[in-house]
Amino acid sequence: MDRRGFIKTAAGAVMAAGVTQQALARDQPEQRVKGEPFSFAVIADPHAAEKPKFEPDRLGNHVERFLRCTDHMAALPAPQRPDFALVVGDIHIWELRKHLDRVSVPLHCIAGNHESGKKRKAELRDAFPDDFKVQGESADYYSFTHKGARFVGVCDAGGGGDHIGHLCSEDFGPRGQCEWLESELAQTEAVKVVFSHIPTHPQALDQNMYLALNDAIYFNDLVTLTKPAGLFFGHMHRAMQYTVGQTPVRVVQSCAWNFGDEPLGYDLIRVGPDGLVATTMLMS
Fold it and tell me: Phi then psi for 126, rounded to 5 degrees?
């Protein structure tokens, strides 16, 4: 199966209504994991403080929808069970943190446009003090390594709830995120994964809901040059797949609500000898 190929399979375990599967970076052997294989999850746009919309009331409020997904992750058998989950923005941490004691899967978060403003970003840093540091100093972006792979969390949600993304803003800091990102993507790990909230446009066009034009041109050029194994975003409230250079991009559907009657869910990513293989877990 090539990078853009899909396999539709039968219903998955526990609450999964169905899955789609995509092999990522199979044709880039230099990006195959050289350490112990593992899985991680990507979950998008919990919108924990909002009232439910679009989806049936039987799925519960937005916190309950998020917890359905994390409970599903925790119930998966090894080796499918994710070691951690990336939460790619629009979290409403002021509400979700009341329920984090019910989550057994470790979380690594990044701010969305609903976390715009220094106060809300500070709340997110406070909820996850082990992340959000660069060289020991507080930051709104960060990286971590896990079993030989590097995960790079980029802050692209600026002030005022802007739905267009920016890599530089007085709303987050410290200044110098672009130089930091270049350094991160030059590190020695074979597998590098970038996660953020607002996606880059595949052709770096000036469109709403994507990175701003100049940011997208810069970001896409950097990705094309450095060839990370995968990029993961949220923000769109629908699933999308495309490539930037040779790097696969997945925009993950929301676990709270989606446009066009698209079901709720999250992505499960297996990192192993074949590179990255993504499975979309759909919640019934």
Answer: -65, -35
